Amino acid sequence: MTQAVVQLRNLTKRIGNKTIVDNLSFDIPAGEVFGFLGPNGAGKTTTIRMIMGLISMSQGQVLVKGIDVTKDFEKAMRHIGAIVENPEMYKFLSGYENLWHFAKMTPGVSDERIMEVVRLVGLENRIRDKVKTYSLGMRQRLGLAQALLHRPSVLILDEPTNGLDPAGIRELRDHLRMLTEKEGLSVIVSSHLLSEMELMCDRVAIIQAGKLVDVKTMKEMKAADASAQDSVFFEVEKPAEAKRVLAPLWPDSAVVEHEGAVELTIAGDQVPVVISQLVSAGINVFGVRKQSKSLEDKFLEMTSHGGGGQIV
Amino acid sequence: MAEVAKLYNLMRVEWLKIRKRPRTWVLAALLVVVVFAMASITNFLGSETKDNWKEGLIQENQEIQSQITALEDVAGPAAKQLEAKMKINEYHISSGISPFEMDAWSFVSLSTNITLLVGIFACVIAGDIVASEFTWGTVKMLLIRPVSRSRILFAKYMVSLLFGLFLFVLLFASAYLIGGLFFGFGGMETPHMFVDPSNNTVVETTKGESITINFGLKFVTLFMAITIAFMISTIFRSSSLSIAISILLLLVGPNLMTFLAQYEWAKYLLFANTELIQHIEGPRLYEDTTMGFSIAVLAVYFVLMNAISWIGFKKRDVGA
Q1: In terms of CA atoms, which chain A residue is nearest residue B16?
Q2: Quick check: A40 contacting B, CB < 8 Å?
Q3: Are A177 and A269 members of one domain?
Q4: Which chain B residues contact residue A92 at CB under 8 A?
Q5: Are residue A234 and residue A273 in the same domain, yes or no?
Q6: Chain A, nearest residue to B22 by Cα
Q7: Would residue A61 count as lying in a domain?
Q8: How far apart are CA A6 and CA A27, in angstroms?
Q9: Which residues of A touch B13 (CB under 8 A)?
Q10: CB burial class (10 A; 0-12, 13-18, 19+) of residue A95?
């Protein structure tokens, strides 16, 4: 693991007698896209907002580039740019005025830098228009622009794809890739949608009921995925007969009979063998359908164990 | 120096958000319209009573006398105010100085009566300046900057006060200009009468002197009104609610005092002390209070209200 850009130490949030975030400790490495993954209400947003000082912590510590957020908020926040949920902007101001507004709150952001960021997100034609005339996608881009103004080392995105259409999500993803690759930015992103995280992140922390379940690289998660066996459906003429033929040949796998199909749980390389067996037994095969166990299923498996269960 | 530059930038940012909203200029324009209307009415009424003003005042005093006897509480603040008015009328009659001689400065003096309007307008801005960020959802964008919450709050407070000052100056300037156009410029030396609350006698000064004192003390009233509205703004997340409560307090508070003045403890209430002019030009709400007493009470409320704003804003979690 490379050097950590954000470190969480025993981070805890209690409201009344409810513990929303429970003793989270982990490091977020520099130069990666790091995802917070967990079902709704797992404490992702609370954690992210504690990192940015929007929500006070009951206990623990957050270090941004080694600076304690509670002790030296202003210094720590210079390294952070963020979009919290939908980027809410001042609608009665133009895009440029919005950026000017946030630029003035940060030391050392010049007018040239504002225009540089505007070009980076491709808003130069509409930047003088009032934000109320912007489409959601344009607001998202303006949101990204305000987060990048002060050249932060960490970009934090809290549920950034809420309310975005697929094209918008894709655009955001491309921007993030470009930023991590070209500008060496670290990105922290939270989402409850695994399919998005799969495409965006290098590494994810899985959070369940305020507790850390595991931190894994996307590679590790996918590697575990490849060796897994899939459910394969063979659409055949006579399922009952097919079952009789196949059951003795694959004693480890339960052969399930469906209407017009049989289902086997086997590795991918076994599929042609099954087909040739069926054909030589005189059973016509109309189709083969693979139902792979997705990361989504895996994720559900991981988080359904209750607090901090075992990893598959 | 860096501190000043930081604060200056934060104030510019807040001012941008005020001046880019049309309602700001609607309020300013409305204030000028009200001053103009007041000048027109004064002009109309003044020309009617100009020649037989003495008879008018005598008649008015008779009416006041019957009003006082009709009052339940003959020693109450309402009665005192009427008595003072009678005394001043008598002084005008005996000295032969007409109260209806209008000029620019006399009109400015008259316009101190609508500083309440400035207070209301200033409260629209101050009551909204923090709450609106929550209403718009922009507060999370604002609070993730490398600026502490205390600084942001302080800049917002300063800008609220400056906007109040701006309206205040606008009232003064438009009253002078419009008054001058209607009644002719000048009039600094026009006599001004009031009843000194310490010895109950009529004092004669000039309009110029009275205006200086009145505006100065009215600004303290405005200052407190803005502080209340600002505190309410940090407590409520809804800007319309926050504005409504601020204005309601501003309107009801002073009126409630005339009713509460019969109770001794009520002299420690904020609204018993916001009008400092009572200690100079009378009438006092409580005979035993002084300028020093009122200033001390205001100072305590000032510290208390700002502490509530500050702690409330500093501690608040910005959740979903």
Answers
A1: A101
A2: no
A3: no
A4: 20-21
A5: yes
A6: A92
A7: yes
A8: 6
A9: 101, 104-105
A10: buried
Residue A192 has pLDDT above 80, yes or no: no
Q: What is the reported pLDDT for A306?
A: 46
A207 and A279, same structural domain? no
Q: What pLDDT is recorded for position A229?
A: 67
Beta bridge partners of B219: none
Containing structural domain, residue A77: 4-222
Kindly determine whether residue B143 and residue A53, on different chains, have CB atoms separated by under 8 Å.
yes
Whether residues A31 and A177 fall in one domain: yes
Whether A99 and A233 map to the same domain: the answer is no
Cα angle value A33/A37/A38 (rounded, 5°): 170
Sorted by sequence, the CB contacts under 8 Å of residue B119 that are 6+ apart come out as B164, B221, B222, B225, B226, B250
A273-277, B50-54, B281-285: range with highest mean pLDDT: A273-277
- The answer, as to whether pTM is greater than 0.80, is yes
CA distance A137 to A227: 39
B311 touches chain A (CB under 8 A): no
Preferred mutation among A99, A105, A106, A188 to probe B, highest tally of B CBs within 10 A = A105
CA distance A110 to A186: 23
Q: How much is the mean pLDDT over chain A?
A: 84
* Residue A49 to residue B319, Cβ atoms within 8 A: yes
Clarify whether residues A284 and A142 are in a common domain.
no
Nearest to B140 among A73, A84, A105 (CB): A84
Put simply, the answer to whether B140 touches A54 (Cβ < 8 Å) is: yes
For residue range A155-171, what is the model confidence (pLDDT) as tens digits?
998 877 766 777 777 88
What ipTM is given for this predicted complex?
A: 0.87
What CATH number should be reported for the domain holding residue A153?
3.40.50.300
Report the phi/psi class of residue B99: left, alpha or beta, with left for phi > 0 and alpha for psi in -120 to 50.
alpha
CA proximity to B319, closest of B147, B137, B156: B137
